[in-house]
Amino acid sequence: MNPVVLGALLGGLFGASLLLVVRRLPFLRKPSVDDRIAPYLRDLGGSDVFLGVVDSSSPFSAIVRLFGPSLRAGAVRLERILGGATSIRRRLSRAGIDRTVEEFRIEQVLWGAGGFGVGLLIALVALSLGLGNPVGLLVLSGLLAVLGVLSRDTYLSAQVRRREARLLAELPTVAELLALSVAAGEGPAAALDRVARSCRGELADELQRVLAETRAGDPLVRALDALADRSGLLALTRFADGLAVALERGTPLADVLRAQAGDIREASRRELIESGARREVAMMVPVVFLVLPVAIAFAFYPGAVGIRLIAG
């Protein structure tokens, strides 16, 4: 590697580090209004909630608290660039993640910083071996940082899909247990309480949240409507709406729950059949492109060799 290029890179890295340290000196950094009033509003929570979830005894806690203002500033800039706070808030609710949009943006900043660090490590290794162009390697680091930011968003969508799959798997059993409890003579709230205490899973947690809202003073119908609003599943929305309508109009609740459980199981059976049909088509790809060419080669290769020997 050229010593001039290596010296320039090390000097630039040292200068950037020194600039960051100087900019964070207390007598050079003007505190914002949020920083001045934060000690008086600490009990109300806020952006320090994410920074406080780390164990104070771990070394990572000191790093997070040291770069906390930078992380929040990066989260604000990332929100201005990407936007979509409503979609993120909706997906966080559907994934069952109790975090704000700012905390999610901070996670994206951390993922992007991790990608940029991996890119810098690759660049240093490549430059030490005399491979690659410094500008191209720097661009690669930037692309990895962008990839890290987008990967956190993609992972959130994957979390939503996994949780919705668990909710769909638990819904028929919970509906049937509710139908049995109501048929045994319990009221709707008592049946929900019994099922929520007896079951374990995502849907049981949602039912516990519904019961907590009713204990806080909300009517059961309104709590069920809130469950339907924050869920992204049509089956769960129909389940909550069916419960609310049955409570409002006095319809036999056990029959409604049994019918909904049967409909959900039938929909799951249809989805399973459709998934099997799609997998059957996907299985044709290795058969056509791998197995069939090998079979043809084994069938025709001996004949081709025999014809060559006869012709020779």
Question: What are the defining features of this structure?
Answer:
312 residues; 13 helices; mainly alpha; Type II secretion system F family protein; T2SS_GspF_dom; 0% strand
Task: Tell me what you see in this structure.
The protein is an all-alpha fold and 312 residues long. 81% of the residues lie in helices and 0% in strands. The protein is built from 13 helices and no strands. The chain has helices at residues 3-23, 33-37, 48-52, 59-66, 68-82, 85-94, 101-128, 134-183, 188-198, 202-215, 220-230, 234-249, 253-311. Helix 8 crosses helix 13. The longest helix is centred in the last third of the chain and has 59 residues, at 253-311. The radius of gyration is 29 Å and the shape is flat. Residues 44-56 have low confidence and may be disordered. Its main location: membrane. It comes from Kribbella alba. It is found in: Cell membrane.
